[in-house]
Amino acid sequence: MFDYKLLEALDMVLRCGSFDAAAKRLHLTPSAISQRIRQLEERHGEVLLRRENPLCATQTGEKLLAHVRQVRALEGELAEQVAQQNNVGEWLTLSVGVNADSLALGLLAALAPVLAEQRLLLECVVDDEAYTLDLLRSGEVSGCISTQPIAVAGCGVLPLGSMQYIGVATPQFVAQYLAASPASPDWLPQLIQAPAAVFSRKDSLHRRLLRERWGLLEGQYPCHVIPESNALYAAAVAGVAYAVVPHQQAAAALASGQLLALPAFAHATPLFWHHWARQTRPAQLFSQALQAFAQQYLKTENP
């Protein structure tokens, strides 16, 4: 049997990032939190929490976290069912790992009906879609949008479709930095001089395209790091840089001539929805709403 007071202490330490912050959230002393973690580790006969900066769970610790968070989700669903019988609605929190581009394309608006009907509060953990699956493995989220097609243990996976990306820049930027054809020997020297805009230092798509298609490594080209999808797109519109963005995000500006397409950067990224195998009813409805969003915004054909 599990002692959920001990598991709650482990969960809160990792959510808050420190023993002191976890103690305040649980109305305990830091020494009491430390004692609970130690008791949990003694019961399992191994270290569950790496005392690093930042704090992180071991592999067994991650499994325990995933368990306690699933139990909490099921308890929340039961509380909601009981509350509905008494005509008192309770809000449930659903933690999901999402990529910034999905948020920029209107994911929250598409999910609004199910969030209201099911009284769901979203806790969105934003990361590059190539890394969100780590959030599910660790138990930090109960579902995530990922590029990985294979389900992890204890989880299910649904294909969503492909997000279509295109390189964009203003006409003035293209004339100054990228006037040569990609087939021209002048193209690579231009790329080395053209300022790019990427979402983060682990923005895998843009960097991967530069590496795989032209052999350019990080540090071999100028690069702005702009960790917000709409702001990154705005940088391209302002002529600060060229960027690789979802085709739908740039469609209007491309049609008006405000931006020019850089077809050499066109790419389709398949996306998948990973979720706990045992979903609560609100989580199931959330998954269905997410699939409806995907049918509208994710395509299979190239732009």
Automatic annotation (TrEMBL):
The keyword DNA repair does not apply. Keywords: DNA-binding, Transcription, Transcription regulation. GO terms for molecular function: DNA binding; DNA-binding transcription factor activity. Residues 2-58 form the HTH lysR-type domain. Pfam families: HTH_1, LysR_substrate. It comes from the Bacteria. Belongs to the LysR transcriptional regulatory family. This is ArgP/LysG family DNA-binding transcriptional regulator. It comes from Chitinibacter fontanus. The lineage of its organism: Bacteria, Pseudomonadati, Pseudomonadota, Betaproteobacteria, Neisseriales.
